[in-house]
Amino acid sequence: MRVVLAEDEVLLREGLCGLLERFGFEVVAAVGDAERLHAAVREHDPDLVLTDIRMPPGHSDEGLRAAVELRRTRPELAVVVLSQYVEHRHAAELLDSAEGRGVGYLLKDRVVDVEEFIATLRQVVDGGTAVDPQVVRQLLRRRADPLGRLSAREREVLSLIAEGHSNASIARRLVVSDAAVGKHVGSILSKLDLPPTDEGNRRVLAVLAFLRGNG
């Protein structure tokens, strides 16, 4: 898999390059700002972009804005944002692009397993969705009013859905039957006007659909 990496911290950039290449990725370009990120994507047409949020010249959200623009012009391009924090203004726009397929938002300090991290990148390249649960929780808190339609139990189930738990896993955690969880999930989708989506990313995509417009 061909990767364009965007990270302004030199040591971290070099470390990520070495890590990716050790697991069979080909880093075709490693850049330190959003302008060169765009140029590298145009030149190399990669399978995956892995980018930080804060980059020169402003060290604010240049990397995330670049990711949003890349997804707008190349919706088939897999993009993973790897950041130290949640940037609310454009996060939902990025995650909702291309119906949430081939996109990820991971927090650096929560990546503790290298092999799991690599597996997540491969999942995104294959069209999957990878969102750190903390990112989802923060975005959900910014949309408190629609959640008011849900009961306390439904909000609890939605939180677990956002973290990627299956119905069976949710049932075990809440000590209820699988059928009860299924009813809660159906009620959540109905109350939030979220129709079922394709298999594989259905549950995370439902949460991302709820976040649409929260840019």
Automatic annotation (TrEMBL):
Assigned keywords, A-Z: DNA-binding, Phosphoprotein, Transcription, Transcription regulation
Response regulatory domain sequence ranges: 2-123
Pfam assignment, any one: Response_reg
Designated name of the protein: LuxR family two component transcriptional regulator
Domain HTH luxR-type: 143-213
UniProt KW Transcription regulation keyword: yes
Gene Ontology molecular function: DNA binding
Organism: Amycolatopsis echigonensis
A GO BP annotation: regulation of DNA-templated transcription
Top-level taxon of origin: Bacteria
SMART domains: HTH_LUXR, REC
Modification 4-aspartylphosphate occurs at: 52
Coiled-coil regions listed in the entry: none
